[in-house]
Amino acid sequence: MSEAGQEQTTAPAGIWTPAAILADLDGTLVDSVASSERAWGAFARRRGLDEEETHRFAMGRPTRETVALLVPEGERDAEQGQIDRDEVDDADSVIVYPGAAELLAGPIPIAVVTSGSTALATARLRGAGLEPPAVLITADRVTRGKPDPEPFLLGAREIGVDPARCLALEDAPSGIESARRGRHPRGRLPHLPPRRGTGGRRRDPRHPRRSRISATPGLRDAR
User: Which of 21, 88, 167, 217 is most exposed by smallest CB count within 10 Å?
Assistant: First the structure.
């Protein structure tokens, strides 16, 4: 176990204090919705897809997984590269949420666990005026993204803390499911409104008015 995992924090009797925090990035620490909408909107226009449904379909999982579902195999690398460039180039437009800087600088060890790439996560953190933490779990570092528990389990392992002693902060259904399957207690931040709409099932942007496909197989409400 790392020194970070051995650090103790004090709290009033009866109040549980996590040994570590595993925080999602987009929608949890920073507001990147407008930037993400621009990048995925451009992708949707290139592919002749519904822009709103494409953005909703893509949220909460690695770009490569979304592109693999929507783009012919021979064109995937080029499309993923373009989306990545568009998002990184627009990273300065993201807005930090209140309390995010204090959370990252606080006494409890923290890892950022995101479905974005390392380049994008680093660019968005710095664009929002935040210093990337020592433990940064991104799509580049996992085989299976959210809702699989691998990202959160890797974050707990790198900090050196039992997953059950980590608090996971998430805003997306796929991330909540990932944390639930990793045995992490889950929490929401005050700035996050209740999720409405499709939850774990998302419309296929190729046929937005006709069909739905399951973006997160087996997703259950993690409340």
Answer: 217
Are 100 and 129 in a shared domain?
yes
Q: Name the one residue in this structure whose structure tokens are 């433990």.
A: 135
* pLDDT tens-digit map of 126-150: 999 999 999 999 999 999 989 999 9
Segments forming the whole domain that contains residue 165 = 17-31+95-187
Domain check: are 38 and 21 in the same one?
no
Of 158, 141, 146, 180, nearest to 24 by C-alpha is 146
Query: Which tokens in the block code for residue 53?
Result: 């449904």
DSSP 25-65: SBTTTEE-HHHHHHHHHHHHHHHT--HHHHHHHHTTS-HHH
Residues annotated catalytic, as ranges: 24, 26
Could you tell me the pTM of the whole model?
0.77
Show which of 51, 76, 91 is a domain's final residue: 91
Based on the fold, state whether residues 172 and 64 are members of the same structural domain: no
Residue type, 168: A
Helices (H), 2-146: 3-6, 33-47, 51-58, 63-70, 76-89, 100-105, 118-127
